[in-house]
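Data deposition worksheet. Section B asks for the primary sequence of the deposited chain exactly as it was used as input, without tags or linkers unless they were present during the calculation. Section C holds the resulting structure in C-alpha cell form. Section D is free text for depositor observations; keep each observation to a single sentence. Incomplete worksheets are returned to the depositor.
Section A, Depositor: J.P.
Section B:
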Amino acid sequence: MTRLVGAELDKDLPLIDKIASILHLQLSFIQKNRDFFKIYISERNRFQWTMKDDLGNGVHEKFMLYIDSLEEVMRQGISEGELEEMDPRDMAHGFVGIVNSFVSEWIMSPRAYSLVSKARTIMSIFCEGVGSPRTRR
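Section C:
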C-alpha cells in the first residue's frame, strides 16, 4: 500500500485529483481486504496497550509515514493556493480521521455496500465541509 501511495504522489496531477486518487487506492485496498480490517479494527483497542512490540511499532511507523506523505500533499496545496492556510499536519490528520470513520462504519454495518462508493462524500466533506454556502465564511 505504501508503494502504491508513493507512486500516486509522484504523478503530475492537480492536487485535489492526487488526494482523490490516494483515497480511492486506500478505500479499494481496505474493501478488498475486508476480513483482515474487520479483525484489525475490532481488536485494535483491545491490544492497544500491548502493541509495544516490533509489530506495534512497525504499524505506527507506517502510519506516521502515511501522515508525513499526506502532510506534504497538504503543504503543496497550501503553497499553490488550493487549500486554506492552516497546519498541513492537522489537515492530514483530519483527512485520515474522516476516512477512518467511514471505514469503521462500513466494517461494522450489517448492510452491505461499497466502501469505494463513499469516496465522493469523503472528498466533499474534506474539501468543502458540510456547511451550506450560506453558512460558510
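Section D:
The domain at 2-126 is CATH 1.10.357.10 (Tetracycline Repressor; domain 2).
DSSP finds six helices and no strands in the chain.
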